[in-house]
Design goal:
The chain has one domain: HSP40/DNAj peptide-binding domain (Sandwich). A hairpin with a 6-residue loop joins strand 5 and strand 6. The N and C termini lie close together (9 Å). It contains no helices and 7 strands. The chain is mainly beta and 81 residues long. The protein has a 4-stranded mixed β-sheet, with no helix packed on it. Strands 1-3-4 form a 3-stranded mixed β-sheet, with no helix packed on it.
Length: 81
């Protein structure tokens, strides 16, 4: 099985905004078992996008490394099979 190269983020803590360093990502809502359908989001040329399921505002920040977030607790670590 192939490893996913798309970073997954969650907002279990209910932050107003999550800053990310990637333009393509997955939002899972909250950590399982309280997650929503894992939705692919693409910022394109925009710097912000709201998840249509959980209403988390994601904001692109070029100073944040890919695979990280601000606040740091919003990166969802996929369990390996």
């Amino acid at each position: 099985m192939a490893h996913s190269a798309i970073t997954h983020f969650h907002n279990s803590a209910g932050h107003d905004t999550v800053e990310i360093g990637v333009r393509e990502f997955m939002c899972v809502g909250a950590e399982p078992p309280f997650d929503h359908p894992h939705v692919f989001l693409d910022l394109g040329s925009e710097d912000e996008k709201v998840c249509p399921y959980c209403s988390t505002l994601y904001r692109f920040n070029p100073k944040v490394d890919a695979g990280e977030s601000k606040p740091a607790d919003c990166v969802y670590q996929l369990e390996s099979a």
